[in-house]
């Protein structure tokens, strides 16, 4: 009888105990985006944004798991609960803010143009007259190029990944690429990039398209998590963690911006 009562008590205690919290699923784009995130041969992801997400989750005392999602479906994945936050170089724009909430920015970077050395491309509508431009599909850079350069460029070609557009640039199949300069600089510093191409400057600002920096994307109803994430970003900025994790990737460069 005592054994039965003990078992019953144990079972009741187990039912009464709170379930362990599920880890937050941190969504990144499944398409590699070095130096921010890319997988190795075993499928393990690394990069600056992976390190940032790890530091942020540690600061807010949350268990997190990196969850790759196709870029064009990443906002629906957030809003349907397949992921819990987006840490994928997503710029804070008015259009996106209609669908999701954003944290304070955690980095900012200019949108610029790199071009073949023997081209005359410049980062203006007149400067791309007759040029073939490459952009990454579904990005603010594609939106910007189509809004500002479509009338003068010969063609604007959309690519699934940055690597593919840079391969076409190096091969001379396009004249220039419009994109995030932090993502494009490693190519310019490579042997292939230095041989073919050069930086032609930043495009004219258009905050309605290019946004106000990059933020963590969250569901609108997750206001408590939003507050924790904002506090976490501020804390790792203040305690030196942000600078320490950024230095190996962007030596001497302030990627947070003004």
From TrEMBL:
Record keywords, A-Z: Signal
Cleavable signal peptide: 1-21
UniProt keyword annotation of Signal present: yes
Coiled coil ranges: none
Domain spans labelled Solute-binding protein family 3/N-terminal: 23-253
Keyword Signal applies: yes
InterPro entries: Solute-binding_3/MltF_N
Database matches in PANTHER family: ARGININE-BINDING EXTRACELLULAR PROTEIN ARTP, MEMBRANE-BOUND LYTIC MUREIN TRANSGLYCOSYLASE F
Name of the protein in its database record: Amino acid ABC transporter substrate-binding protein, PAAT family (TC 3.A.1.3.-)
